[in-house]
Design goal:
Length: 273
């Protein structure tokens, strides 16, 4: 987001944090559903996005338009949150959609946090991403932009029924809709990171040829936490093709100590002779 949009989003996020402090998890989850339903409306209606972010209109006028359209259809708390956002300035209409969608996701994560389930939701999102990436057929089906989102969501619901928290399933549906304009896999990755961030953690994606033991994973997490000055959530992927060693990605930082990398470097060096 550009600077003006970030400020307007922050206004809604601060109101959400204040609301969450005195609410029950179920109420916050319901609020999240309402916010995400408005995001879906904005995705379908580009003219509405433009009207609600039009810099030529006063903030009060845009807030009034929102109230006229949605008053009585969404909860008072949701209307208050969204009014605080549309009253601000948005650099482009698409950033208003991104902001409303992000607010809905943060509300879902907040509801899981209040219920004590946020760590589990984070792990379930990552594991589902692993399942999807491990099956070309499933990945192609869920990522197909030509297939209706509802049909893909129904498939995801069937796969996750009884195996994941309701918040996890709702977040997967949000990823299928293209959260933040991302691909399905990109959206899942971003949601994992947002869940970790809400727990004040950094995500480390670790690739190994064979699973790390619990003690090895713990030691790696401690070392990375010391490096980054923040708790680290280790997400482990097993890939026999790396042959041995460890590859770690934290944000834009990549530490590749795999045997495969060393073999490739040796091969490249020999090819230059």
């Amino acid at each position: 987001m550009q600077a003006a949009s970030r400020e307007s989003y922050r206004a809604g996020a601060e109101r959400l944090d204040a609301y969450v402090r005195g609410a029950e998890p179920s109420a916050v989850a319901s609020t999240a559903d309402d916010i995400l339903s408005v995001a879906a409306l904005l995705r379908r209606e580009p003219r509405l996005r433009r009207a609600l972010s039009d810099p030529a209109r006063a903030g009060a006028d845009r807030a009034g338009l929102l109230g006229d359209m949605l008053g009585g259809r969404i909860g008072a708390e949701v209307l208050d949150l969204l009014t605080s956002m549309v009253s601000g300035r948005w650099s482009v209409p698409s950033e208003l959609l991104d902001g409303v969608e992000r607010l809905g996701v943060e509300a879902l994560l907040a509801s899981a946090d209040l219920a004590g389930d946020l760590g589990e939701v984070e792990d379930e999102l990552f594991r589902f991403g692993q399942v999807v990436s491990g099956s070309a057929e499933l990945s192609n089906t869920l990522s197909d932009p030509m297939a209706p989102v509802q049909r893909r969501a129904e498939l995801a619901q069937q796969l996750l029924a009884g195996k994941a928290q309701p918040v996890t399933i709702r977040l997967v549906e949000t990823a299928l809709a293209g959260f933040g304009g991302r691909s399905f896999t990109g959206a899942l990755t971003r949601l994992v990171e947002l869940a970790a961030d809400r727990r004040d953690r950094q995500v480390a994606y670790v690739t190994v040829a064979a699973p790390l033991t619990e003690e090895e994973e713990r030691r790696l997490g401690v070392r990375l936490s010391q490096m980054y000055g923040r708790e680290v959530s280790v997400k482990q992927t097993v890939d026999p093709d790396v042959l041995g060693g460890v590859r770690v990605r934290v944000g834009s930082d990549l530490y590749d100590g795999t045997v495969l990398r060393r073999l490739n470097e040796t091969r490249n060096a020999l090819a230059k002779r």
